[in-house]
Design a protein that fits this description.
Elements: E1 13-17, H1 21-33, E2 37-38, E3 47-51, E4 63-67, E5 76-78, H2 83-94, E6 103-114, E7 117-127, E8 130-135, E9 144-151, E10 154-167, E11 176-183, H3 187-209, H4 211-217, H5 223-226
Helix pairs in contact: 1-3, 1-4, 3-4
Length: 236
């Protein structure tokens, strides 16, 4: 199932300045899914996501512009919005190097096969390129792991290499937080994983916004993001 990861670490503050209430509501919930704190009273250089022509920034205010123009740039995104574009643009403001792939928090049992045996693990984060899991012991970087897990009545059997393995936080169940990079991903499998993640976002956002606000807000999103054709959404 999905897990609420918004309290895992201090969240980065973002302000939203757009004229449409449904767009503002949807963006707020989407940014919360990514671990940001939406604070409309925040100042002092906070990053602002703003509709072009609606907001006048301070001289040194960092702004990500949303524009009706077809011309986009480093901090200027065209509407309808591709959510990866917003994700990576925000990442550049807060993380170096920026993460490029959408991800979602999980709490899902899985089985990892390495060192000649099976290990019970828990998935804590999933992207369309890899995952993070709680592993019973420390693993070496580049160690090969085969990971099996089920989501939405679908079973995934993934090969991967370890990127990192560190002791988990004391307030978590024991083990090592271990990052895995998936290998040999076919295009269809990559699309399916992305669809699960995006549908997971939208399922939760729709339930928080309400159907009417969601119906209006979805017109600001790129159509392909709303039609992932990946089956049922992840359930919170």
């Amino acid at each position: 199932m999905l897990a609420d990861r918004t309290t895992d670490r201090p969240r980065k503050k973002v302000r939203i300045e757009v004229p449409d209430g449904s767009l503002r509501l949807m963006l707020g919930h989407l940014l919360e899914e990514w671990g940001y704190l939406v604070d409309q009273d925040a100042e002092d250089g906070v990053v602002v996501v703003a509709y072009e022509g609606h907001y006048t920034p301070d001289r040194f205010q960092p702004v990500i512009w949303l524009s009706d123009s077809h011309y986009s740039g480093l901090d200027r995104l065209s509407l309808p919005l591709r959510i990866e574009s917003l994700y990576t643009t925000l990442e550049r403001k807060f993380h170096q190097p920026p993460r490029r792939h959408l991800r979602i928090g999980l709490d899902v049992p899985a089985v990892a096969h390495c060192r000649g045996q099976d290990w019970p693990v828990r998935l804590t984060c999933l992207s369309d390129r890899g995952c993070r899991m709680l592993f019973p012991r420390e693993l070496a970087r580049d160690e090969a792991v085969r990971l099996s897990f089920s989501l939405n009545e679908c079973t995934f059997d993934m090969e991967g290499l370890v990127l990192y393995s560190f002791p988990a936080r004391p307030d978590r169940e024991g083990g090592y937080g271990t990052g895995l990079l998936f290998l040999h991903l076919e295009r269809e499998l990559n699309r399916q994983l992305r669809g699960l993640i995006v549908n997971g976002y939208f399922d939760r956002i729709r339930s928080r916004c309400g159907e009417e606000a969601w119906r209006q807000a979805r017109s600001f999103l790129f159509a392909d993001d709303l039609d992932t054709r990946s089956g049922r959404c992840l359930q919170a």
